Amino acid sequence: xxxxxxxxMIVHLAGxxxxxxxxxxxxxxxxxxxxxxAGPQVVISYSFPEVGIFEDTPxxxxxxxxxxxxxxxxxxxxxxxxxxxxxxxxxxxPKKIVxxxxxxxxxxxxxxxxxxxxxxxxxxxxAGAFKMLTVPGGGYDxxxxxxxxxxxxxxxxAQYETTISMYVDFLNEMGGSGVGWNDxxxxxxxxxxxxxxxxxxxxxxxxxxREQYPVTFVSWYAAQAFLKWCGLRLPTEAExxxxxxxxxxxDGDTTKRVANPLPDRAYPWGNEDxxxxxxxxxxxxxxxxGFAYTAPVGSFPADKSPYGIYDMxxxxxxxxxxxxxxxxxxxxxxxxxxxxxSWTALPEGVDAIAQPTMVPIKASSFIGFRGxxxxxx
Amino acid sequence: xxxxxSISPAIPGCRGQNNGGGRHLRSPVGRGGKCAGSRFxxxxxxxxxxxxxxxxxxxxxxxxxxxxIGLGNRGTQLTEYFLKRPDVEISYLCDVxxxxxxxxxxxxxxxxxxxxxxxxxxxxxLADKDVDAVAIAAGHNWHALATIWACQAGKDVYVEKxxxxxxxxxxxxxxxxxxxxxxxxxxxxxxxxxYFRDALDYARSGKLGDISLVRSQLLERMEPKLTMPKPGxxxxxxxxxxxxxxxxxxxxxxxxPGTWWWRFxxxxxxxxxxxxxxxxxxxRAFLNLPHPKSVCSTGGRFHVLDGSxxxxxxxxxxxxxxxxxxxxxxxxxxxxxxxxxxVRKRDTxxxxxxxxxxxxLGSNAMLVTCRIGAGWQVFGKEDAPIAGGYGRPxxxxxxxxxxxxxxxxxxPNANVEETHQAMTLCHLMNASLRVGGRQLIFDAASESFVxxxxxxxxxxxxxxxxxxxPDKV
Lengths: 377, 473
What we know:
The complex is a heterodimer.
Chain A: E1 5-6, E2 11-14, E3 17-20, E4 26-35, E5 39-48, E6 59-66, E7 74-75, E8 81-83, E9 87-89, E10 93-100, H1 102-105, E11 114-125, E12 128-129, E13 151-152, E14 155-158, H2 164-174, E15 193-196, E16 203-206, H3 220-230, H4 237-245, E17 317-324, E18 335-339, E19 357-358, E20 367-368, E21 372-373
Parallel strand pairs in A: 1-11, 17-20
Antiparallel strand pairs in A: 2-3, 4-5, 5-10, 6-7, 6-9, 6-11, 8-10, 11-14, 12-13, 14-21, 15-16, 17-18, 18-19
Chain B: E1 64-69, H1 73-83, E2 88-94, H2 102-112, E3 117-119, H3 123-126, E4 133-136, H4 143-152, E5 156-159, H5 167-179, E6 184-186, H6 194-204, E7 211-220, H7 243-247, H8 270-287, E8 294-300, E9 313-319, E10 324-331, E11 357-362, E12 366-369, E13 376-379, E14 385-389, H9 395-408, H10 416-434, E15 440-443, E16 448-449, H11 453-457
Parallel strand pairs in B: 1-2, 1-4, 2-3, 4-5, 5-6, 7-10
Antiparallel strand pairs in B: 7-11, 8-9, 8-15, 9-10, 11-12, 12-13, 13-14, 15-16
Helix pairs in contact in B: 1-2, 4-5, 5-10, 8-10
């Protein structure tokens, strides 16, 4: 029996610049079956398009389901899934996601459930040594991570900052009562998400043309909520810094074939100033770089880390999990550390070690985020 | 360099766009912070914020055009406080480290939907005739000279505490404020806190009896051990940091990251004096007297042994005609509740025994209070308090008072003259400590010690060209 399946993300290439939303999955279908030994199963099949998916830059695919005709939606935990079409997918072609045990763990009437499958591009950052140039939390991280690690486990990081279109999907599933949205998001120069209707059935949409811009005006808490929604998490500072600097070996310590030529680079692209020779390598302060405010993600080909992750220098600064918390912050939730520059930053503020702090409730026009998977804090 | 240039003092507040007419500042300071009729009244800062200017007769109703100098934690906080005021436009942000602009720029962008000018050299702000005032939260070594230059440039000044590194610096700041008729307020925000004004009123009413002793107890938790450079060690100067200007009037030394400078006499007065600047201001306000006759101080660095020069333990006695101020300082007391978060925004009092505090001992009763919104209480012969009130920190009220005084040209709370008196207590006790703890006799008229050249040398520092405090402001 077919039920509902939604599609997701995409990457299309335009003039050498990568732009990102959810990847469009085609031929999606849901079938229900059962076996005497294993009970009912749900099989979601789809075709993954040719959008430049490789082992180093694969896609992250996740599934959400509604047990009540779309009234509420939940993430299907990956540990309940089998097949080759979920979590990290690194090749195009027909894929399957198999769900066993739904009646025991999720919904008693699985045939009435609806499913949505979404995919986004990520980049693999292999495990191994790297030279961290900063101290997490500036040395004031009372969560215990105040020593610069010399290595971090493998992880995958979103190639692009979370876009408005992605966040709108999140809001439409989760924000019916108004959570996750604030009226500043309607500002079309800095964000561009509008809201219609009334609680508890608010509906959201991206302002025309703003779909591929990074979402802004998101607090640390809202960023966490989005990432939980899609099964990801915020990066640690160490992960963020390794993603921009590269490890000692870019292919990781297992193979050690590709030595990092610039392990202490100043910027994702190397050491050239961001505006050297009048050529703008990222979206920073001023409109001379082509953008007075934020830019569509991936607009600056040079602003790409050794692993192929875009906009780590400019566009929007990004939330991390690390804290800056001292005795002065007792009784508060302290500060969170942002990494990366933004469209408001001077050239000196877009380097790999820029480490401003911000209270987690703050939702600003120059702050966004991206997710990671794997590894661990 | 702006020092010595001819400046004609302007009247700030007259410049700029009309913000709607008839909208004026409400007087924020005085007794207004408490609900009328409430002995332990609840306090709300919000009533002073986001109100349009509302006092008739002030010389201007335009917006105050402000530059913020120094964008560390405090400078960023000040940016936020000033941005809460609709009558303030922050047109400049300044830091010698160009990588430090993120937070403050974001705050301005968020509040005003525009990016302010960002400069590395604050003299660019002083040279802009459209700027009415500056808020100085740069390193302590810059407070005095930046204030003097700002006064010379015709700007009003909000300067963070501690206002001066030496007594001489403080004197020149006073002279500059007077000569150029500037409003100069020091960031001793407790002076604007409603609860503290109430406590002052009570003490000055005579209800405590004769006040002969004020005890200022600056007791804080263990200060962190800092990573100091080994001899000859230095780190590369980060891109975008003007290290020469960061050192400014202080000696130019090899770059080293971190907050080591906070505990070296050439760059700051140490953690104790940093907060003693508040406590001495409170203690002095209760006595309301000019300089003391003598000082004697002892102490040293006994607990956090990381190479810091400034003390972590200090005791001082100031002798007045018929009064004493006794000061005790320690920054290694883990059982002390500094009340920073537990009390500051709650209707509760600290456990005074385990708290920072200032005690005013009268012949009838004792008043105890503290900064950071601790409130105040008066105790007589019985256990139950006979008077008091909860408190809230005075930061935003202090900013409001500064802005009001910019318009009225009145002296603000914690004005430079009063705060120089308070800061002098810090300089005197540090001088006594540094000369081995001997009692120093102080001549108030000349602001120098009597017959003690060694101690007098500590009241002024040599400076470093071109960042010199001018003898004649």
